[in-house]
């Protein structure tokens, strides 16, 4: 068994890499997919994602599994290294390893946080095709700050995925970014009338959106509504 503490520096990672290669070369059958995954993970955490992928390709006697690939995928998206990510995903197909639910979540989170929304949408569509469960959290990642948020929300509803407060905040945020503040105000009013709790984050987003669009009167309307709803929150907002 190989144990690597990559936060102690690159020396330990190099020692583990060298030792693993000795295990493979020994022909004693002591090297396993577990030890391969440990070394690949250590290399990835050390920022050497390419070396980890090349190691997987080089060691033909050990077949990587989904855990091996999830480690590489996670390292790629955390560093927004999408060029290397593409090569890793190609390798999963070559090795006939299917992505699981967790792998899709890692990918969608990475693409959405970087602004690669279309790629994230395609992954969600693929999940539906494979009959994998797509939860509200994944849709919220895509909806947040997206100008076509309502289109995505329609798809979400058609798939029977329930909206929550983060979904509606994403819709308001998307409308504000598109400078469609009147539509954003109508949405919050509809939510309020349906007894949905419009929280601090939504009020902040709407107020800031109105100001950015030059609609100061609308911003003051929202401020007045917020003030009437919760004096304590309003005082906190003004203080900030």
Automatic annotation (TrEMBL):
Gene3D superfamilies the UniProt entry points to: Tetratricopeptide repeat domain
PPR repeat start-end pairs: 100-134, 164-198, 199-233
Pfam families documented for this protein: PPR, PPR_1, PPR_2
Family of the protein in this entry: Belongs to the PPR family. P subfamily.
Transmembrane segments: none
Record protein name field: Pentatricopeptide repeat-containing protein
Family matches, as InterPro entries: PPR-containing_protein, PPR_rpt, TPR-like_helical_dom_sf
Keywords: Repeat
Repeat found in the keyword field: yes
